[in-house]
């Protein structure tokens, strides 16, 4: 049965049962609370990640500074060793230095082995 020559029939516009509407509203409220809890957990996790990233960045910068200082110290030491090797009596001193370094490494190895 058509009214006003429209090609479709309108849906029944009966009001929804109050209990069905209340149930949907309660379900929406519960879902909104769950979503709010999840958002709070994600926010807390994001803050913790940010704090950890800042801490790790600080550590890495400190390590980078230490490596720069060590590199400079090692460069100066190598310059002195090369200068010592170029001097006339340097070969004898280089031999002593090599034996000292070898002794230290053997001593460390023995200490760590029998610890």
From TrEMBL:
Segments forming domain T-SNARE coiled-coil homology:
22-84
Keyword Phosphoprotein part of the UniProt annotation = yes
Mode of membrane association? Single-pass type IV membrane protein; Single-pass membrane protein
Task: Mark the transmembrane ranges.
Answer: 94-112
Write the record's keywords in alphabetical order, separated by commas. Answer: Coiled coil, Endoplasmic reticulum, ER-Golgi transport, Golgi apparatus, Membrane, Phosphoprotein, Protein transport, Transmembrane, Transmembrane helix, Transport
Picking any one GO biological process from the record gives: vesicle-mediated transport
Q: What GO cellular component term, any one, is given?
A: endoplasmic reticulum membrane
* SUPFAM superfamilies, per database record: SNARE fusion complex
CDD domains xref list: SNARE_Bet1
Q: Which InterPro entries match?
A: BET1_SNARE, T_SNARE_dom
Q: Which SMART domains match?
A: t_SNARE (SM00397)
Cell compartment(s), UniProt: Endomembrane system; Endoplasmic reticulum membrane; Golgi apparatus, cis-Golgi network membrane
Compositionally biased intervals (Polar residues): 1-16
Ranges for the region named Disordered are 1-29
Report the protein's function.
Required for vesicular transport from the ER to the Golgi complex. Functions as a SNARE involved in the docking process of ER-derived vesicles with the cis-Golgi membrane.
> What does the subunit comment say?
Interacts with SNARE complex members GOSR2, SEC22B and STX5. Interacts with LMAN1/ERGIC53. Interacts with STX17.
Q: Which family does it belong to?
A: Belongs to the BET1 family.
Q: Which PANTHER family match?
A: GOLGI SNARE BET1-RELATED
This protein's name: BET1 homolog
Instruction: Supply the source organism for this entry.
Output: Drosophila rubida
């Amino acid at each position: 049965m058509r009214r006003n020559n429209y090609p479709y029939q309108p849906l029944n516009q009966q009001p929804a049962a109050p209990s069905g509407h209340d149930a949907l509203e309660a379900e929406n409220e519960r879902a909104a609370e769950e979503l709010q809890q999840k958002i709070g957990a994600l926010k807390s996790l994001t803050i913790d990640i940010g704090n950890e990233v800042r801490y790790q960045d600080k550590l890495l910068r400190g390590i980078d500074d230490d490596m720069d200082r060590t590199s400079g110290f090692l460069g100066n030491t190598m310059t002195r060793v090369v200068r010592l090797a170029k001097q006339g009596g340097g070969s004898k001193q280089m031999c002593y230095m090599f034996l000292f370094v070898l002794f230290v490494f053997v001593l460390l190895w023995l200490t760590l082995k029998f610890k």
